[in-house]
Amino acid sequence: MTNIRKEYHKNGKKMDYSGIDERFTPFYENGERVEVIWKKGYEDYTGYGYKTEGKKARFYVGKSTGWKPIYLQILKRHSIGGGSICSIAVESIRGLRIYSQKHHNKK
């Protein structure tokens, strides 16, 4: 059972994990940097208004706090926040075998 699922069972009905995309869970739990290819035709959610046109993005996967957590795009190891991951716009996810400092120190 993943840590996300353990947290869900521990908190019961108090938490709503419907915003969690399970495809990102292993990367979040391992602290691994990912490369995502966005589906063509979706808006770029960086706020610049471009179409994604199959563009790639690289980031660490973070998780928001609160009663309805979501996964976040954390751009650098030392970033303290990021934008939400728009799961419907994700075509593919690939782990880059680069780990966050927090994960690296656990080994």
What does this structure look like?
With 107 residues, this protein is α+β, with helices and mostly antiparallel strands. It has one domain. It has three helices and five strands. It has helices at residues 3-11, 25-30, 101-106, and strands spanning 32-38, 56-63, 71-74, 83-84, 90-99. A five-stranded antiparallel sheet has the order 4-3-2-1-5. Strand 2 and strand 3 form a beta hairpin. The longest helix has 9 residues, at 3-11. The model has no long low-confidence stretch (mean pLDDT 80).
Mind describing the biggest β-sheet? 5 strands, antiparallel
Number of helices: 3
Instruction: Give the total of domains.
Output: 1
Helix-strand topology string? HHEEEEEH
Strand content: 25-35%
How is the quaternary structure best described? single chain
Helical amount = 10-25%
Query: Structural class of the secondary structure composition?
Result: alpha+beta
- Strand order, biggest sheet? 4-3-2-1-5
Low-confidence stretches: none
Radius of gyration: 14 Å
Mean pLDDT, as a whole number? 80
Shape by Cα distribution: globular
Beta strands, count? 5
Query: Kindly, what is the distance between the CA atoms of the first and last residues, rounded to a whole number of angstroms?
Result: 21 Å
